[in-house]
Amino acid sequence: MIDWTGLASIFAAFFIVAASPGPATLAVSTVSAASGRKNGIIFGAGLAFGLAFWGVVAATGLGAILQASTHLLIALKVAGGIYLLWLTYGSARSAMRAAPEEPGLDSHIRSSEKRLFAKGLALNLSNPKAVVAWMAALSVGLGADDGLVGVIVATLGCTLIGLLIYAAYAAAFSISVIMRGYVKFGRWIDGMVSALFAIAGIALIRSAVTRS
Question: What pTM value is reported for the model?
Fold first, then answer.
């Protein structure tokens, strides 16, 4: 039998973690401001599927194994940090370009739907810290008696919450006034985004080195 009170606790905990500012929400906000709601939602869908992967890892018990496997976790953190530094490079290059003449023409964001989805997927797949967030959220409301059905419902529900959060960010940052602001201050925005990605990437690599 599903414990709906426990599920509500899981969903609430996961919402707080997923909605808080971080590389994923920063990226979907930038994509949406630069190239519109549709592209932001496609990018967000990739983020949500990446998040779902770590949810499955956590729900099947592999998350605990990953946490205990020092070398594997270090490798994943280093890979994630390198990917964030690659995003730093992309945002920095964009900051040095001339600003687009109108919303939706930013050349470093403009991409095919498949590429946008893949970039969002890669961003959350490169973040092994997500499995810790999942494990924390699932532990809030899941009990020993919930069984496989409870785990599946919790994982699917949290994945849907993640998708809705990213879609909300896409909708909020694709309104016309924000897109016009991005056109006007895009170079400064990309510069700040580049710095934040760099901080996140270095922090992830540093945590890997410290753990070793």
Answer: 0.72
Find out whether 187 and 95 touch, Cβ atoms under 8 Å. yes
Q: Which residues contact 123 (CB under 8 A, 6 or more apart)?
A: 23, 24, 27, 46, 47, 50, 83, 87
Beta carbons within 10 angstroms of residue 112's beta carbon = 10
- Helix 37-59, helix 23-35: angle, nearest 10: 160
How far is residue 94 from each of residues 100, 120, 132, 139, 167, measured CA to CA in Å?
10, 18, 32, 41, 24
Pick the more confident residue, 87 or 25. 25
Show me where the domains of the chain are located.
4-211
pLDDT digits (tens, 9 = 90+) for 92-106: 776 676 554 444 434
The residue among 30, 44, 13 whose CA lies nearest residue 154 is: 13
Name 130's Cβ contacts closer than 8 Å, sequence gap at least 6: 50, 51, 54, 124
- Residues 160 and 85 sit within 8 Å (Cβ to Cβ): no
Instruction: Give yes or no for residue 171 having a pLDDT over 90.
Output: yes
| Statement: residue 167 has pLDDT above 70 | yes
